[in-house]
Write a structure and sequence with these properties.
heterodimer, A: mainly alpha, Non-ribosomal Peptide Synthetase Peptidyl Carrier Protein, Chain A, 65% helix, B: alpha/beta, Rossmann fold, Aminopeptidase, 3 domains, six-stranded mixed beta sheet, disordered C terminus
Chain lengths: 82, 508
């Protein structure tokens, strides 16, 4: 159940990454910022804008800088649900 | 089309949609809080740029008043040397000025830079876009994202980015396309609530009561647009007598006579609109069509895609957005715009006179045409600049020129001839322009244009003859006429071919 939930979350996140950085971006659970050439600071900005509007998040400056991997993003989204 | 952006915020997220349009090239420069030197430097690299967007967020950066004034001054300084348009997109209402507790430095005005802004708007190619238009719609809390601002100099929410993007796209379209000239509207559930043919005269509403207020406001809006120079037209499936009666008996803002063309019948709307364009002698691409029916909108969009169609839905907030659409804006209002419906009406009377009088020559003679020519007359420049932009058919060398460009041209020893025409039916206004480039004793016609409402009654020849003889009197020799073919200027080409084959050619 938890695994399936994770898959759905990851699919949704994949769409958000595409919107923010272009169609060629592929992510998985282990993706980190420095592994993706498109994930530069402008696209990080685009990503945060998309995440905040999709999940209704209000991110602090520290959180915005810390969200540099798919895992940390998924965790932050999960925290907001609890 | 080439667009250049200078901004004190990270503007990339706002440019995503624009970059995807393949006829637009976008360059963007970001200079956080150092925008003045960049604007000044930009002056030298604007070759080929159609629209320069300067986006300033004084609210976020908390600029001092002096700095904001120096931004405005530097925009004014580069405007004169730039052939494209400058769009100053801004939030200059620095938060400090909105405080009710502080002694307001703006002399009672909430916007303290009004007089500075008016000064820069005097340059004909500078436009001002106040992002408070969006902020007042969305609410401040839905606009700013301070964390992103402090980290990346991009202080906006997703919602505001989309709204700004939409507005700027509309603004760019507005600046780089000809203005609309005619608004055609449906009647039932567009000009009034209800269906006249079914509900009867007593069943339709357009008044200040709750049911009718929306339609009352819409008619007021259309009346204002008519006063700004738009032609109004009716395009409705109804019995003409019924609609005429509704206008006569109900006390509505618009009257039957406010509509210059009335296509009230049971024919297809696309045929009606096409006919109306022929009657008015203007292109379908200068038409706006407004209807409440999805069916009619979709059918016009597929059959006459040149027409801009808008759907009217009776939701007040959407109505306000619709009336705020750039399609309804005028770049600059001139005296000619204000008298437009009267001019077209006089033209209708001329057509009627044409039908009853005998030969065409007799008809032209009967019009009693009077022409009045000015040379290098500074007061004419706003309208002449507008003519270079709007005239398509009889235009030898389509080249939109700003007031500043015309002033420059004039001050270089060249000649700018303006032509006013009137006849017994009315005043045509300032309808003709000839630009003469003077090089020692040689004169070149760099452009010759006449508004289409002055065409086909011999004015083409008379104005040219007048100018060539005036040049001779000034000791100048006519050397050349510049002509550049466009998709629309066949009338100019035909005229040029005609004068070249005449016995006594103007061109030696």
């Amino acid at each position: 159940m938890d695994v399936q939930h994770n898959d759905q979350q990851l699919d949704k996140l994949q769409d958000i990454f595409r919107q923010a950085m272009g169609d060629s971006v592929r992510i998985n659970l282990d993706t980190r910022k420095n592994m993706v050439p498109e994930w530069d600071s402008i696209n990080h900005l685009n990503l945060i804008v998309e995440l905040e509007s999709t999940y209704q998040l209000g991110l602090s400056m520290e959180e915005i800088e810390k969200m540099d991997s798919v895992k940390s993003i998924l965790e932050r989204i999960r925290d907001s649900r609890n | 089309m080439k667009i250049s952006v200078i901004s004190d915020i990270t503007f990339e997220p706002v440019l995503q949609q624009l970059r995807q349009q393949n006829d637009i090239v976008v360059e963007s420069y970001q200079y956080a809080e150092l925008i003045v030197p960049e604007i000044m430097q930009a002056g030298s690299r604007l070759e080929g740029v159609d629209v320069l967007i300067i986006h300033v967020d004084a609210w976020f950066f908390r600029y001092e008043d002096e700095y904001i004034r120096s931004i405005l001054e530097s925009v004014a300084a580069i405007a004169g040397n730039f052939r494209g348009n400058i769009l100053l997109s801004n939030n200059l209402s620095n938060g400090r000025h909105l405080s009710m507790l502080k002694n307001n430095p703006g002399n009672g005005s909430l916007f303290p830079f009004e007089s500075d802004v008016k000064k820069i708007l005097a340059a004909s190619n500078v436009y001002f876009y106040d992002v408070n238009r969006i902020i007042s719609r969305m609410g401040f809390q839905n606009v700013y994202n301070f964390n992103l601002g402090f980290l990346y100099q991009m202080p906006y929410t997703k919602g505001f980015i989309s709204a700004l993007e939409t507005e700027l796209t509309g603004m760019i379209r507005f600046l780089t396309h000809p203005e609309k000239k005619a608004i055609f509207v449906d009647c039932d559930n567009t000009l009034w609530k209800g269906i006249l043919g079914e509900d009867g005269l007593s069943g339709i509403q357009c008044d200040k009561n709750a049911a009718g207020i929306f339609f009352y406001r819409f008619q007021e809006f259309l009346r204002d647009k008519k006063n700004e120079g738009f032609i109004l037209g009716l395009c409705s499936k109804n019995n003409e007598e019924d609609v005429k009666e509704a206008f006569a008996k109900l006390n509505m803002p618009l009257r039957w006579d406010d509509f210059l063309v009335r296509k009230v019948n049971w024919l297809n709307k696309n045929d009606n609109l096409r006919e109306a364009a022929e009657t008015l002698n203007i292109g379908l691409d200068s038409f706006i069509f407004i209807d409440d029916s999805d069916f009619e909108i979709a059918s016009i969009q597929s059959l006459l895609p040149e027409i801009s169609c808008l759907k009217l839905s009776p939701v007040y907030a959407e109505f306000l957005l619709l009336t705020d659409n750039f399609l309804f804006k005028r770049k600059r209002l001139t005296a000619e715009d204000l008298g437009k419906t009267e001019q077209y009406r006089a033209e209708q009377q001329r057509s009627e006179a044409k039908n009853v009088s005998g030969s065409f020559e007799d008809y032209v003679k009967s019009l009693d045409i009077r022409m009045d020519v000015t040379v290098n007359h500074a007061q004419d420049l706003p309208r002449l600049a507008q003519l270079t932009e709007k005239t398509n058919q009889f235009n030898f060398n389509k080249e939109p020129l700003s007031i500043a460009a015309l002033e420059q041209f004039m001050s270089d020893q060249n000649l700018v001839y303006g032509l006013r025409v009137n006849d017994k039916f009315g005043d045509y206004g300032l309808v003709g322009l000839m630009l003469i480039e003077v090089d020692k004793q040689d004169a070149t016609i760099r452009n010759y244009l006449l508004s289409c409402r002055a065409l086909g009654r011999g004015i083409e020849d008379d104005f040219l003859n007048f100018v060539t003889s005036d040049l001779r009197d000034k000791g100048l020799r006519l050397k050349d006429i510049i002509f550049r073919e466009t998709a629309k200027n066949a009338p100019a080409r035909i005229f040029l071919e005609k004068i070249k084959t005449q016995e006594k050619p103007a061109l030696t």
